């Protein structure tokens, strides 16, 4: 195991201050290795989403550097930035599907980054890509929905379409921002199992923000606690006691009872 450890995401002295002066992240140093399944936990407003969005540069950071598989995404421009981003899949709380498009079409958009930017019609997709999309839908048990309109599906099914889309994108990293926040417990479990499949079967590195401690415990191999933009805990899940979660959720934010 030890000789296969490879840094996949590296944050060095990362600080993010929003335009209005709010500090989103404060001096974060973190290394996440290839194949890890990391859960980020913390109170609402702690900076979890800012952290994920900084990793794929949906947000620009104010200070420091973030590298993806050895390349600085902070400094990357143009084509280079697009190539780095292609290796990062994103799963959102609200699924981010094109609601009026078919499931197949949504899943195929995972391939868009592999085509030149001017080639953006549906017909551009190769037979091979359509096959890939279909196979991805089989992996999440939705092959029978291939021609359904995205908004005809339940929330859980829509999130699994988003997972099939990310599988079709074939990234090295998946960032999941509260992937189960709008789903019922049983559906949440199915979505988390799909993320686990991407991690275990395809070796993708998964970083997920989760509000549910129960799901975090069940699926995370490593847990990172964030409070007020800072890392306040980082450890293996197997070595993380209940009191750590209590601390992360009760400390700070003015809710402390002592
Ligand atoms: P979490 O995901 O843990 O709930 P966020 O990363 O969304 O936390 O937010 C971290 C802090 O940054 C909060 O204080 C939030 O209000 C602030 N914040 C988030 N987005 C913006 C923004 N676009 N402009 C200004 N402040 C923001």
Report on the architecture of this protein.
- With 258 residues, the protein is of the alpha/beta class.
- The chain folds into 2 domains: 1-87 and 172-258, Rossmann fold, CATH 3.40.50.300; 97-170, no CATH class.
- Helices cover 33% and strands 24% of the residues.
- It has helices at residues 48-55, 78-86, 103-108, 127-139, 155-169, 185-202, 213-219, 242-250; strands spanning 7-17, 23-33, 37-41, 63-68, 71-72, 88-91, 173-177, 205-209, 222-227, 230-236.
- The model is unreliable at 252-258 (pLDDT under 50).
- The structure holds adenosine-5'-diphosphate (ADP).
- Residues 18, 20, 22, 24, 42, 44-50 line the site of adenosine-5'-diphosphate.
- Adenosine-5'-diphosphate binds at residues 18, 20, 22, 24, 42, 44-50.
Secondary-structure map with pairings?
Layout: E1 7-17, E2 23-33, E3 37-41, H1 48-55, E4 63-68, E5 71-72, H2 78-86, E6 88-91, H3 103-108, H4 127-139, H5 155-169, E7 173-177, H6 185-202, E8 205-209, H7 213-219, E9 222-227, E10 230-236, H8 242-250
The structure holds adenosine-5'-diphosphate.
Adenosine-5'-diphosphate binds next to helix 1.
Number of domains: 2
* Elements, N to C (H/E): EEEHEEHEHHHEHEHEEH
CATH structural fold name of the largest domain: Rossmann fold
CATH class of the largest domain: Alpha Beta
Q: Which blocks of ≥5 consecutive residues have pLDDT under 50? A: 252-258
Write down the overall mean pLDDT.
92
SS-based structural class?
alpha/beta
Ligand roster? adenosine-5'-diphosphate
Radius of gyration: 18 Å
Q: What fraction of residues sit in β-strands?
A: 15-25%
Distance between the termini: 44 Å
Helix tally equals 8
CATH second-level architecture of the largest domain: 3-Layer(aba) Sandwich
Physical arrangement of strands within the biggest beta sheet? 6-7-8-3-9-10
Largest sheet: 6 strands, mixed
- Percent of residues in helical segments? 25-40%
For CATH, the homologous superfamily of the largest domain is named as: P-loop containing nucleotide triphosphate hydrolases
Number of strands: 10
Q: Globular, elongated, flat, extended or rod-shaped: what is the shape? A: globular
């Amino acid at each position: 195991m030890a000789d296969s450890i490879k840094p996949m995401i590296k944050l060095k002295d990362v600080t993010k201050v929003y335009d209005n002066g709010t500090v989103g992240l404060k001096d974060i140093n973190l290394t996440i290795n290839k194949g890890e399944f990391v859960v980020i936990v913390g109170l609402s407003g702690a900076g979890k989403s800012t952290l994920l969005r900084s990793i794929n540069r949906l947000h620009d950071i104010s200070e420091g550097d973030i590298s993806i598989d050895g390349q600085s995404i902070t400094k990357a421009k143009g084509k280079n930035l697009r190539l780095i981003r292609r290796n990062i899949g994103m799963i959102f709380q609200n699924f981010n599907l094109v609601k009026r498009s078919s499931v197949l079409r949504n899943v195929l958009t995972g391939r868009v980054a592999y085509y030149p930017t001017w080639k953006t019609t549906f017909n551009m997709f190769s037979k091979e890509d359509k096959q890939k999309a279909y196979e991805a839908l089989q992996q999440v048990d939705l092959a029978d929905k291939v021609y359904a309109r995205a908004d005809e599906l339940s929330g859980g099914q829509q999130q699994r379409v988003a997972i099939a889309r990310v599988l079709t994108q074939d990234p090295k990293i998946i960032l999941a921002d509260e992937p189960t926040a709008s789903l019922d417990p049983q559906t949440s479990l199915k979505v988390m199992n799909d993320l686990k499949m991407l991690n275990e079967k395809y070796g993708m590195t998964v970083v997920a923000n989760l509000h549910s401690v129960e799901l975090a415990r069940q699926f995370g191999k490593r847990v990172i606690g964030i409070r007020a933009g800072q890392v306040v805990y980082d450890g293996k899940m197997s070595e993380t006691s209940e009191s750590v979660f209590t601390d992360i959720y009760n400390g700070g934010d003015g809710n402390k009872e002592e």
